Amino acid sequence: MKKVLLTGFEPFGGQVLNASWCAAQRLHHTVIDNATVIAAQLSCSFHKTHGELKQLISRHQPDVVLCLGQASNSSVIQVEKVALNYIDARIADNDGVQPIEQPIINDGPNAYFASVPVKRLVTAVQAHQIPVSLSYSAGTFVCNQLFYLLMHELTLHPQMIGGFIHVPACEQQRLLHQHPFMSTAQVVTALKIMIQRLQQPQDEVTQSLGTLY
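Now predict its structure.
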């Protein structure tokens, strides 16, 4: 049986919830087709997330790693394609750290691409009429750093694949902060569809999901 490591973040920026963890924790220890999901919460910290992620990968030896983050300004799920070797934090993390215009890894590649078939995941979710898009920017905060470090770590584990997914704020956050939102139940459904799709050995979708700007 395959293993899927699914991570979400703790709350940040003065909020009491993080939609990524609200969704991830609902799938902890569930079995989706032939895959067992292991969910874990990560710190919203530039200094802590890499160590936490490495420990999880070492402990669980997953076949797939999907990291989730919250995109409070979005009303759709965003499957990320590319992680930049760049931090430019608009706000401080939960440790009060706010790096500005810094590389994630000195002399590291300028960018990494997700190794999960991102277009396949997007089109699978679209087929179920759940709002989703392919994104070419994971931002410049802790989410992008985690995505970059995940893909860097997976260069040491060629048998594993990984990627990053941004989810909208959840319904409870909308009431508190007036964010665009998506219900946690709908996000969980989309994640189940993606995990199912990853177990089907088919080539990546060849249609364009690109943007003009």
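The chain has a mean pLDDT of 93.
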